[in-house]
Amino acid sequence: MKIVIAGGSGFIGKKLTDVLLEKGHKIIILTRNDQRPSGNISYVKWLKEGTFPEREIKKADVFINLAGVSINNGRWNTSHQKQIYDSRMKGTDELVRVITALPEKPSVLINASAIGIYKASLTAKYTEDSEEKANNFLGKTVNDWENKAKEAEAHNVRAVLMRFGVVLGNEGGALPLMALPYKLFAGGTVGSGEQWVSWVHIKDVIRAITFAIEKDKVSGPVNVTAPSPVKMKEFGKTIGKVINRPHWLPVPPFAMKMVLGKKSSLVLEGQHVVPKVLMEEDFEFMFPSLQPALADLLKK
User: Fold this and answer.
1) Per-residue confidence of the chain (300 residues) as pLDDT tens digits?
2) Residues 238, 244 contacting (CB under 8 angstroms)
3) Crossing angle for the helix pair 137-149 and 78-101, nearest 10 degrees?
4) Using CA atoms, how far apart are residues 132 and 170, in angstroms rounded to an integer?
């Protein structure tokens, strides 16, 4: 297939591109910079004045949107929150515009999303059918982002909204920072330790995306989390066990708030999220439980 990717240079985008190339697909990366084609990868400029990607994209089968300023960088002050929000709205709006302009539409738009759309809770279990949404910055951002992506459905394009959990990988995401204190013999429970961590291995993220491309019945929200979320205390203890380091030095909530500001909610709060759609469609996780997932990543 011919697959267009926005956000192909990010943590997930790079891994996804490698896997899609191995499968024999042709990849078009949307980029702001001039880059030369290489093998089955070509580049098309976008999001700059005078760029019209639809003039260079012919008969694309799939659009994948991973573009947006990372929520992991910065302190979530007003300026950074605006960048996070605007980058997602602007990028998705442009993709929908390009799809609208194409005479031959792709069959599917795979759009990144996040479990931050669900309200933080110690007791609730969320599936894609859950209606209660978070009334905070991240909840509003994700909700608006999904609504923007769903505009592609007006053009008979299947829209899949991949609600990523805490993605575990060595090249990005939360794991390197979460594992660092343990490697320094200073690991311990973060916050109360009772908050849920709905995690997923990067390999299963990539496999879930390719699964959603191939499964015509999959549309709308898809929780991309392992079927066995754990509480933060267990998550930390498992890191320590895997790399043979102690779990002993607690990090109280006020310390996280001092260091991270508003962004501390990412580690001090959590949601118990169940991947109902993937499970009903018989998706097989390579890493359904935490210890083997961490061993695969941290022992390399």
Assistant:
1) 999 999 999 999 999 999 999 999 999 999 998 888 899 999 999 999 999 999 999 899 999 999 999 998 778 899 999 999 999 999 999 999 999 999 999 999 999 999 999 999 999 999 999 999 999 999 999 999 999 999 999 999 999 999 999 999 999 999 999 999 999 999 999 999 999 999 999 999 999 999 999 999 999 999 999 999 999 999 999 999 999 999 999 999 999 999 889 999 999 999 999 999 999 999 999 999 999 999 999 987
2) no
3) 10
4) 33
The answer to whether the CB of 3 falls within 8 A of the CB of 62 is: yes
Amino acid at 161: L
Distance CA 199, CA 116 (A): 12
**CA atoms of 92 and 97, how far apart (whole Å):** 9
Q: Domains in the chain: how many in total? A: 1
Q: Where are the alpha helices (DSSP H) in the chain?
A: 11-22, 78-101, 137-149, 175-183, 202-214, 232-243, 253-260, 265-268, 276-280, 290-298
Query: Residue 52's domain is classified under what CATH number?
Result: 3.40.50.720
What's the CA gap between 251 and 161, in Å, rounded? 34
**Between the CA of residue 207 and those of 9, 19, 111, 284, what are the distances in Å?**
18, 9, 15, 9
Domain of residue 238: give its range. Answer: 2-298
| Residue 186 C-beta-side C-alpha neighbours within 13 Å | 6
The pTM is what? Answer: 0.96
